Amino acid sequence: MDVEIHLVSPPDKAAAPEPERLVAYSARDAALLARATGFALDPSSGSSLLPEATPRALAKGDRLRKKLGHYLGATFHFEGEWYWGLDRLDYLEERLVPFRLPGAPAAFIAPRREVTLAPFERNAAPPPLLQAFISFRSPYTYLAIERVTKLAAHYGADLEWRFVLPMVMRGLPVPVPKRLYIVRDCKREAERLGLPFGRIADPVGAGAERGLAVLHHAIPEGKGAAFAASFLKGAFAEGIDAATKSGLRRMAARAGLKPALVEKALADPSWRVAAEENRNAMFAADVWGVPSFRVAGGPMHWGQDRLWAVEDELRAAVASPSGP
After folding, report:
1. In this model, does residue 127 exceed pLDDT 80?
2. How many other C-beta atoms are found inside a 10 Å radius of the C-beta of residue 219?
3. Which of 295, 280, 7, 16 is closest to 172 using CA atoms?
4. Is the pLDDT of residue 51 over 60?
5. Any idea which fold 129-318 has?
6. How far is CA 200 from the centre of its chain?
7. What mean pLDDT is predicted for residues 231-259?
8. Is 7 left (phi over 0), alpha (psi -120 to 50) or beta?
9. DSSP E strand stretches across the chain
10. pLDDT digits (tens, 9 = 90+) for 194-233
11. Cα(179)–Cα(145) distance, integer angstroms
12. Which residues contact 133 (CB under 8 A, 6 or more apart)?
């Protein structure tokens, strides 16, 4: 099998609107991923790896990447499908299994790390705080919501919901290639996780605002997780329009919220203050996207692909060293 390598430029500001924060976060995340996978990483060597990169080579790679429908580097393209970084390399390896040479190792080069919810012996430490930064227009938040809730329950963590407005409602662009890749990627991830996905009623605008208003009131009632899960499933798997009275009430009812609470929430604009505070907290951690997670006292982890790292930190916080 032939492998073609193409040099490309960093993503433009339309795809990565906070380039400085992206560079800072990516360095930390790459170091984490290298430790977890056993790959060697020398951050100081990055600028010298491609000394002969020329504007012409970059322009050629950029044109091809755009033609094929992507916007990032460190991606693989095979027979019409994209694979972003180590987090999606297992999908590519699955497709390449029929081409495996005789005698080649059966193990994948980059097996995916998963949430395990393994048994453990608890220590005497107080419950850790787990913060979940979420948006109601994020399909990746939908993919993560059930697992992060289970993580908190399994490790006895206090789960704090930190909601923000969708990126496009915060003045951050989401170009078409990015939107298309995200939907396609979420579809295959949903299938892997056994979640329904695809009947989408985009909640951007009024739908997201109404949902966050209700979430703001559901959280102190102890129903934040239930409502968030109901809203996201409705928006990304059932085609329920949260901008309508009937749609939002349906999402709320199955989370155990009564119509009176919904109406009270919609009349209260205080959720906007909380959303802005949460946005500022994300930016302070060099992150602007969701879902993002943080165990109090630890670093921010961006994406449903990093829930295994969240689990590692929760386990370290509550498990006895002598336990299993």
Report:
1. yes
2. 19
3. 16
4. no
5. Glutaredoxin (3.40.30)
6. 18
7. 99
8. beta
9. 75-78, 81-84, 129-134, 158-163, 292-295, 300-302
10. 999 999 999 999 999 999 999 999 999 999 999 999 999 9
11. 20
12. 162, 163, 164, 278, 281, 282, 287, 290, 291, 292, 293, 294
Length of the chain: 324
Take residue 24 and report the two structure tokens written for it: 């800072």
Region 262-283: mean pLDDT is 98
Any bridge partners for residue 319, and if so which?
122
Helix axis angle, 224-237 relative to 139-155, nearest 10°? 150
Contact 233, 197 (CB under 8 A): no
Tell me the pLDDT tens digit for each residue of 5-19.
999 999 988 888 888
- Measuring CA to CA, how many Å separate 164 from each of 19, 151, 168, 209? 20, 21, 11, 10
Residue 323 has pLDDT above 60, yes or no: no
Residue with tokens 């490790």: 155
Best CA proximity match to 109, nearest among 118, 119, 122, 96: 96
Q: Which two tokens stand for residue 250?
A: 């349906």
| Every domain of the chain and the residues it spans | 129-318
Reply yes or no on whether the pLDDT at 175 is more than 90. Answer: no
Does 48 have pLDDT greater than 80? no
Please check whether residue 17 is in contact with residue 172, taking contact to mean a CB–CB distance below 8 angstroms: yes
